[in-house]
Amino acid sequence: MSWIAALAHVGSRQVFPPFDKVPPRGAMRRGTVLLECTLSAVASAQPILRIPLQAHAAGHLSILALPQGSFALVVAQGRSMVHRTLRLPLPEGGHVLRLSLAWDCEAGLARFGVERADGQGFVTGAMDLPAPMALDSLTAFDAMQICAPEEADLGFLAISNSVEPVGPLPGLAARTFVSTPFGAREVSRLRTGDLVMTRDGAPEPVLHVAQRILPGLGSFAPIRLRAPYFGLDRDIVVAPHQKIFVTGAAVDYTFGCEGVLVPAGYLVNGQSALPEPNLPLVSYAQVLLPSHAVIAASGAWTESLYVGRLRRDEDRLAASLLAEVNPVLLPEQAHLAPPVLKRFEARALAEVA
């Protein structure tokens, strides 16, 4: 079990029933509350989520936006209160953020996390362990105050009964075929030591296959790339953040280079790329290679998992999907050389393509 319930605003308010059909009752000794929202800078403290807690001791779980890119999380239960403040500097304009509280009473772990949905940064901080929270409080969406200020816009709120990681995310649907020296294989079936073909012609060994099941909402909502566009020999499903290496005369004419990387979410146009609907949960996977490389997925060129210098930060590594990976296998990676297009640049490319 993992994701239990979610609330999303997609045109109109939608409440998703328990994904695993477990009735919302009992105390959660382990879990994650994940809020995704688009947020602009605030001039003063603004509440963006308040969940009333009505278990053994009444209280609330609140997340607040603070000036200068800071965020505070507060859990008040009866006479006790635990809190943590984190800072994630943001460029100008609105940004899609994911803010999460994860806790495990048995392991003595509680963690506040703030991350940019575009993968350009995340911070985590340990906090004192809150008391177990009632599941029916965390799924009583009608009683919540969500994204109250004008500066915030709700993407979704999701509840998990597992400690969910933050940081690098895989971006290919788990059954996507990738090229190896021995033919195409499903990315989720690859194992450490298997070889994957890269665009420069040299195979690289798989260090790890990252996999994660996520709600099909917000920045996790899957996108279908359609064949024969992007060189595909069959349709593939990817996450919005998964970057696709795009080449052609239009790229050379517009940007003066052989190829560019474009997040799949920027490619949606109703023809070559379109949303993949009706997937409450989606399973993503991606390979970690010694370098940040471009690999073939059913004919399209896509980036491998990027981890940068994550292994140098023990706290962030421990909070990530790579926490259980043998440290010997964790590389330090430089970014790919091709430029990554912004949304307006992707639109300009589509106009001349």
Structure description:
The protein is mostly beta strands. The protein contains four helices and 28 strands. It has a seven-stranded antiparallel beta sheet, with no helix packed on it. Strands 8-7-6-5-13 form a five-stranded antiparallel beta sheet, with no helix packed on it. Strands 24-23-28-27 form a four-stranded antiparallel beta sheet. Strand 16 (177-180) and strand 17 form a beta hairpin. The longest helix has 10 residues, at 343-352. It is globular and about 65 Å long. The mean pLDDT is 90.
Helix and strand topology:
Elements: E1 3-10, E2 12-16, E3 27-28, E4 30-39, E5 46-53, E6 59-66, E7 70-77, E8 80-87, E9 95-104, E10 109-116, E11 122-126, E12 133-134, H1 135-138, E13 145-146, E14 152-160, E15 172-173, E16 177-180, E17 183-186, E18 195-197, E19 203-205, E20 208-215, E21 223-225, E22 236-238, E23 243-247, H2 249-255, E24 259-263, E25 273-275, E26 281-288, E27 294-297, E28 300-303, H3 314-318, H4 343-352
Antiparallel strand pairs: 1-2, 1-14, 3-12, 4-9, 4-14, 5-6, 5-13, 6-7, 7-8, 9-10, 10-11, 15-26, 16-17, 18-19, 20-26, 21-22, 21-25, 23-24, 23-28, 27-28
Name the descriptors.
single chain, 353 residues, mainly beta, seven-stranded antiparallel β-sheet, five-stranded antiparallel β-sheet, 28 strands, 43% strand
